[in-house]
Amino acid sequence: MIVDILEIKDRILELENIFPNVFSVGGIENDLSNNPFTHYLVYLKDNKILGFINYYDIYDRIEIANFNVLDEYQNKGIGNKLLKRVVELSTNKENITLEVRCDNEKAIHLYEKYGFIKKATRKNYYNGVDGILMELELGIMEDIYVLGIESSCDETSFSIVKNGVLEIATVISSQIDIHKDYGGVVPEIASRAHAKNITFVIEELLEKAKMTMDDIDMVAVANGPGLIGSLLVGLEAAKTIAWLYNKPLIPVHHIAGHIYANNLVKRLEFPLLCLVISGGHTELIFMDKDYSFKKLGGTLDDAVGECYDKVGKVLGVEYPAGPKIDKMAKEGTHRYQLPLPLNDDSYNFSFSGLKSAVINLVHNEEQRGNVINKEDLATSFQETVVDILAKKTVHAIVNYNVKNLILAGGVSANSGIRSRMEDICKSRNINFTCPEIKYCTDNAAMIAAAGYYAYLDGRRADFTLNGQSSMELK
Ligand code: KG4
Ligand code: ZN
Fold first, then answer.
1. Is the CB of 416 within 6 Å of ligand 1?
2. Which of 4, 23, 169, 210 has a C-alpha 20 to 30 A away from that of 221?
3. Ligand 2 center to residue 256 CA distance, Å?
4. Strand partners, 250
5. Residues facing residue 98 across a β-bridge
């Protein structure tokens, strides 16, 4: 575990005693109180201090001043972790510099692994031994352009995103108009429409981005979960482009994409909790770093978006019903009593009971000859949904002690859910992020953003990559 020395202030003397060749007694305290730029990160294992890194954060650059790991704990990756943390903390800086003894090959190699290069030699810098000035240029780190492809349901979408954060261009071709006559997505029609649209979408994207396939560094594709026939169309396009232009192929889980839609708004901060709410998913996910997902719980039956769409059917609202019910909910009052589904201490959800309760309520009122006030029912339904999502989310926030909450998936466009979550975070001093409304529902910008971090995580696929209708997020 890496901690800032300020979090374990009472152990400064201990740190000085462990590294007597580096510090004099009282030196760290002196440094901390006189130098506003100084920072110390300490590596702890089983509460024992094993190493530290001391650096200066000087406006637009970082200078590593001291870096040491106890002799008996060397070669165990501790130095690696400390250095990696400083590099991670320096993403908005111009460069990181440090001095190293010219005969310390091991350290030089470690720095080179992280992209440091030798800039200059300082003669006799270390009492007769030369020092080498090394620098990691952050400002000129090569840009990576990811082509993202999304076709898992009824949107054919392509996008180009730079370095996982900057959207260059996106094209989304939606099939909503085709499917709304059927009251939902018809898989066979969806895959045919993808096949028909896909080449036009690619052409339009390249035109919009003013780029060619040669400018792309890699291809990221959502290979599941989703409708298999639809997934395969995007997947074949991805493989063809990767093969033709000799680019790495990166598989992306559709929900990882939804989560990384937030990264296009604001760089994710960890640890975070994500409430995933879409047409096919309702889950609470914990992340302690990029591309690492821990599912805390999920729906036992219907997803929340699915519930919106089914409730929409009984209210006579056209597919997809979510946005329209959301609008109606703003105009009504919470008058109908509905059960709070799976109101327990787990992180799981259940929405089929709520859906049935709404259907039964409508039928009972109709049989009694009463007219349903659709706006009031929409409000009652939406508030019930918001209540249960909020309750479980707060429970996870408290138990996992997170300071960052994000929303993901099509239903995160919902105004009631967004404003309740925002209030919860404000009152608890927690950072809250949700995707831009246009990127709440399916799109390829989110796949390209996630693809960048999947790539950094070492994920690659070959041409045997297949689509999967259901697939665990890991
Ligand atoms: O994420 P998405 O595009 O597809 C899946 O991956 O499942 O989510 C689509 C779902 C639909 O069920 C739609 O009704 C719902 O998102 N939705 C909303 C809102 N906007 C879209 N649900 C509630 N309120 C909204 N404003
Ligand atoms: Zn989706």
1. no
2. 210
3. 10
4. 220
5. 64, 134
